[in-house]
Amino acid sequence: SAIRSLRYCNVVVLLIDGTLGKVPRQDLALATQALNEGRGLVVAVNKCDDIPSFELAQEGVAATLAQQLPQAGDIPVGAMSGLTGKGTETLLPAVCRVYDSWTRRVTTNMLNRWLEAFHRVYPPPTKNGKIYRVKFITQVKTRPPTYCLFVNRSLSAAATPGVKARPQLPANYRKSIESALRTEFDLHGVPLRTIVRAQINPYNTKLPQT
Description:
The protein is an alpha/beta fold and 210 residues long. It has helices at residues 2-6, 25-36, 54-68, 91-102, 108-121, 171-184, and strands spanning 11-17, 40-46, 77-79, 126-127, 130-131, 134-141, 146-151, 193-198.
């Protein structure tokens, strides 16, 4: 029933038992499923009236989620008590913030100004004397936010019908770009997706040797 509900919602509020002192494996599986479905995620730690500190429960769960689910950034975690109602007032604002991130669209102009600044701080990596650089970035969809990275290196050019370029971008550098995007545009609690594409020279009619 929970998995079926994931397909029809925008933001998932995952309720876990704070008295357990950890995030159960089944709850981590549901959180992972929610992110794989492209949904926003908020975690509510319940039964916090039965433990010494709301803050400790919240921090412990947040640390576990950051380690186990890094693909969603800083997932909002709220400590609450269903019995007394304490803490429940923080849930709806958290859901609204995540929904805003989930539907946020950033203009291409703003993204490429950000990319220039990013390259000044984090120069593109070099391998075998070649620089691997993202030349252009644009957002192709929301829900969840998805960005297309056009890079300057590929193993083949798409100048011949049926031949597709295989873009190259070091995995670590791609992760650095995704992390910086998330921080700059406050995209926490949502999956952030990137698509790497080769920047093709339309005047190049000769395929490089591979």
